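Moderator note: this is an archived Q&A kept for reference. The question asked for a predicted structure of one protein chain; the sequence and the answer are reproduced below.
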Amino acid sequence: MVLPEPYRTFIAEVANGSSLGPAGDGGLQPLGWLPDTWPDLGPRQPGEPFPLEAAWPWEDEEGVDPEDPLINAAFNKGSIVLGAEDGPSFWLLLTTGPHRGEVWMIADVGASPAPSEPAWGFKEWVQRWHTSDDWWD
């Protein structure tokens, strides 16, 4: 798997993680690390296809089983974890598929691009938190 630019250059030339950063809980995670609050849903597979093509707020869908394999796949396939935000919410950088290079937010209630339209890439995500106190609003 080849990491998306500009994230690949950032970790190679600037820093592989940082205690400072957009993620509210622990900063920007080093490549391959997981936040302490990451759920244990099986092994991470960043080279496998990311399973979602659009936002999916599964909390809003009646009858969705929290053990749905698609939910586990959304957490574990086709992405790297950039960090945590407010405990059970996580920033992902998608590494595969049509949304490769986009930053998504995933939590126990659903997954969506950040923001929903147009989705930010790593550069926009970092620029936004760097220049704004209310960067996620």
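Archived answer notes: The chain has a mean pLDDT of 87.
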